[in-house]
Design goal:
Length: 216
Amino acid sequence: MLNFVTTNPGKVREATAYLDDEVVQFDFDYPEVQADDLGTVAAHGARAAYRAADGPVIVDDAGLFIDAFDGFPGPYSSYVEDRVGIERVWRLTEPEDDHGAAFKTVIAYCDGEEFAATPEPIDREERRGQDLAADDRGGATTDEQVAGGEDALPVKLFEGRVPGDIVAPRGDGGFGYDPIFEHGGTTFAEMSTDEKNAVSHRGRALAKFAEWHAGR
């Protein structure tokens, strides 16, 4: 059984389409660290959730990365949406020459065990509620960061990405930035749930995770 840490039952339904194991919703309010990458946030949540669930967990973190703004808002997407709003994000992007963007999701998995080497990164840094300072991170990958002690829990990370463009808001469906994110000529807010799930960043991350998990 896999515990999907989320308050959104729709995410659990999406996960069951990729995973043979029973996926159950685990409602756990873990503290989110402030960090410049999704993997750091998701890994911290997965460790905290594993200790609370005492069983395998998956945690996801997602964000909108706008090319013209060097990937901002990224991990801060929810905060920017709440404080600025999606129409202002569009108006800020509109004058730029480059409207390219991407939605990204990182799935973090923790079961308390070590992982065999695969192309997907492993986060081994136990941050204890604090993000690494920029000088400490340097150019390190998640495999190269210094382990956070003997009790640090390794977390396996799987990223999904869908490219697109920032456009004027269109469509009545979806949520968040969906009305201003266009993929293949259609905004996410103009797609049905099935159409969106077929190309979604979360779905792509789940597919990678499911393939790896089935081979364990």
